[in-house]
Amino acid sequence: MRRLRRRLTALPSLVLAGLLAAGPLAAQDFPIDPPAGTAPAPPEGLALPTDFLPPQTDLVTPLAILDRLVVPGTRMQLEWRPGGGISSAEIPSPVVVTRGALAGPVLCLVAGVHGDEINGIEIVRQLSHSVDPTRLSGTIIGVPIVNVHGYSRGSRYLPDRRDLNRFFPGTRQGSIASRIANAFFQDVVSHCDMLVDFHTGSFDRSNLPQVRADLTRAEVLEFSRHFGNTVVLHSQGNKGMLRVAATAVGIPSVTFEAGSPGRLEPTEIAQAVAAIERLMVHVGMREDPSAAEPGAALDPDVVAKRPEPAPIFLDSRWVRANSGGLLISEVTLGQHVQAGQRLGRVIDPVANVERYLLAPVGGRVIGMSQNQVVLPGYAAFHLGIQTSEQQAVEEAGTPGDAVEEDPDPGERPEPPDPAAGEDYE
Predict the structure, then answer these.
(1) Where is this region: Disordered (predicted)?
(2) Tens of pLDDT along 122-131?
């Protein structure tokens, strides 16, 4: 029995010695080169394992904002208050965050920086609550009322008569306007990838729905192309404006003007809402409802309703009253006029004298005053001069007279001085 065990124990050593004597060991028991020819295709109709797997998509994580987490595919209404007890006696600003189920950019829609410009408030409210988060690629942050101080009093300004849209990005010290601007910039604007700031005309003026953008910046120029057939006016803006401050830190931003202050105008609101919906389609945040199915023929009616490329107005001119009296307009907002055409008249009711306001250039009425009592120098009509996008970009980058939109209000704003090109944004 012991002899049998010794033989079995010695057997592996003998086998190993024989293999070594035969030559080096092979690393595998199949040919090194793959066999010639191609593998046969699977039978037709057979489902492969990958057919049951969902398509790979970018992971969407919850958005951390204002000390809350907004999970993908949901909408949450938050509240924003500047720190330091600045607005402890005021209602908070609502912030509606719609976090899409799919990956995409963060679009911020802001209104009510001027408290009496309520068209923008309704525009942002509609857009913030109408988008389906389960079908949205990206995130929409809607802030319908930034300046709750002015909104609660029906005023453009903060309680100390400062214009909030002259203090962005603000600082932690200084005036109330600077502190509010800084808090809003840090708490909300810092989350944005692109921003639209809604305004209206001011001081009893009305603006045709229009986008104002600094076309000297390539990222802003590209952004301005996505609003359908909405008028685009080149304007670098003034220091302290929200769109200027946001663009300076890498967030492409524009101002969207629509209508007049102190009233709700359904037509202007609807045009602005439609423009933002087109924007979301162009930047890939939502599907185009007018798009045809892949491979299907285009519907001629659908194609006919698609907006034309946006007209760009590089230059603009204000036409001002040279005498005081009663202003009566003879043109309408959006109307095309020729050089020398009569825009309106100013009537002196004491002397019973009428003086006419004539268009210095041909263009389109993109802003105008309401009929009212005016003083000499009052900006009555804003004319936009149409040009091509290429010419607009070329001329926007050359030195020249800037298209200014507002006087610098300083510590306490003086009555507006409507110099050429100003539009009280």
Answers:
(1) 389-425
(2) 999 999 999 9
